[in-house]
Structures are given as structure tokens and as C-alpha cells.
Design a protein that fits this description.
This protein is an alpha+beta fold. The protein has helices spanning 2-9, 23-27, 32-39, 71-77, 110-114, 122-128, 131-139; strands spanning 12-13, 20-21, 65-66, 89-92, 95-98, 154-158. It folds into two domains: 2-39, no CATH class; 60-158, Flavocytochrome B2, Chain A, domain 1 (Roll), CATH 3.10.120.10. The chain is 26% helix and 10% strand. It is globular, with a radius of gyration of 28 Å. It binds protoporphyrin IX containing FE (HEM). It holds the Pfam family Cyt-b5.
Length: 185
């Protein structure tokens, strides 16, 4: 058939690679139609997910997840005023908190939070705050801000068994119980 011969003689443009391939090479591909199907797709890298402040109605367990492979870079990017984003994230156990807009209002002062910028501060946080402070000041109140409620500062939680290690070991709480026997703890 005349039109097949004409095709043989031509180089067929490859829409994906942007090069010309002979029909022999092209015929080893699934089909020309298939190649044309994907030619319109974007081949650029997927955009980075962004993490934003979450409403107080979302339980800690249902926050957006950050994987163990993502977390080091995200913390480096959000490690205080001198970091690429200029934002201050802290990690309280497995919850990532963006303290940026709360810093200047913190009753304990902003420096103490800045010391933990981009870092784990689980046990240190619980030394100074009760669960009630978590609910009201970190999660935020159910009452909307416009009606005098408090907004929350959580952005995400660590996925699965991902961990951000604390740089400081937690001192034992029950100092003095040693006399009860070494098996006590
Ligand atoms: C966004 C995160 C945080 C929030 C929302 C927050 C909130 C608060 C609140 C509401 C108080 C007053 C508590 C009271 O009067 O009983 C407080 C005090 C305090 N916070 Fe935080 N805090 C945060 C992070 C931190 C961190 C990371 C540390 C460092 C370990 C810290 C250390 C303190 C200290 C030392 C006080 C003063 C305690 C006192 O006067 O007895 N806070 N914080």
C-alpha cells in the first residue's frame, strides 16, 4: 500500500522526547495513539505540598501528614526568622506547630520558643503547659476568632512512626524513688 511505504521513508517525530525516530523504533512503542495521548501531560516535577494553619475542629489525629523523608527539609525551611521561610515551626511530640504569629504574645516570652525553632520540644513544652493550654492555645477554641475565640497554630503531624528527636534527654521526673528498687523504672 502506497501510504505505508511513504510512512516508511519518513522520520516520525516523537512528541515526548522531541526527537525524530524511524518508524522501526516507533513501532516498538505501544502505539502512536498512546504516545499522542500522553503528549499533553505536564512532565514537570510535582509542586511541593504547602502546610497551613489548621482549624481547631480537626483532631490531632486527623492533621495533614508529613513523612519522615520530608520532615528534615521542612523543619530547616521553617527554623525561625533567619530561615528560608522566616517562619518558626516547633514539634511537640508528633504535632508540628507554627508559632510564628504567636511568638510576640507568648506569656513565657518569644526567646524560649525561638530556642526550639525547627526542633522537637515535646517534654519541654509539657513541663510548662497543661493539656488545657494545648486545647485552648495550640489547637485553638471552637469559638471563632471574630467572636473572641483563639486561633490555633497546628499545621501537621508526623506520619506513622516518623520521629523528630529531642536534642536534650528528658530528666527523670521521680528523682528520689531509687530507694524503691532499681526495677521501679
Ligand atoms: C505555640 C506554642 C506555644 C503556645 C501556644 C504557648 C502558650 C503558653 C501559654 C498560654 C502560657 C501561659 C500559661 C499559664 O499562664 O498558665 C505559656 C507560658 C509559658 N510557656 Fe508557652 N506556649 C508555647 C510554646 C512554648 C514552648 C516551646 C516553650 C518552651 C519549652 C514554652 C515555655 C513556656 C514558659 C516557660 C511559660 C511560662 C510559665 C510560667 O510562667 O509558669 N512555651 N505558654
Amino acid at each position: 500500500m502506497g501510504w505505508i511505504r511513504a510512512l516508511d521513508a519518513r522520520a516520525i517525530p516523537d512528541p515526548v522526547l522531541g526527537i525524530k525516530v524511524s518508524e522501526k523504533t516507533a513501532s516498538s512503542r505501544p502505539s502512536i495513539e498512546h504516545i499522542e495521548d500522553i503528549a499533553h501531560l505536564s512532565l514537570s516535577a510535582p509542586t511541593e505540598p504547602t502546610y497551613t494553619l489548621q482549624p481547631s475542629t480537626i483532631p490531632d489525629a486527623e492533621l495533614p501528614l508529613i513523612s519522615s523523608s520530608e520532615i528534615p527539609e521542612l523543619l530547616a525551611q521553617h527554623s525561625g526568622p533567619g530561615s528560608p521561610t522566616g517562619r518558626t515551626w516547633i514539634v511537640v511530640d508528633s504535632v508540628v506547630v507554627d508559632a510564628t504569629e504567636f511568638l510576640e504574645n507568648h506569656p513565657g516570652g518569644e526567646d524560649i520558643i525561638l530556642q526550639f525553632a525547627g526542633r522537637q520540644c515535646g517534654w519541654q513544652f509539657w513541663r510548662f503547659h497543661s493539656k488545657g493550654i494545648w486545647e485552648e492555645w495550640v489547637k485553638g477554641t471552637q469559638k471563632p476568632v471574630e467572636e473572641g475565640g483563639k486561633r490555633g497554630w497546628r499545621v501537621a503531624r508526623l506520619e506513622g512512626d516518623a520521629v523528630v528527636k529531642n536534642r536534650f534527654p528528658e530528666p527523670r521526673k521521680f528523682v528520689g524513688l531509687r530507694k524503691l528498687g532499681a526495677d521501679w523504672w
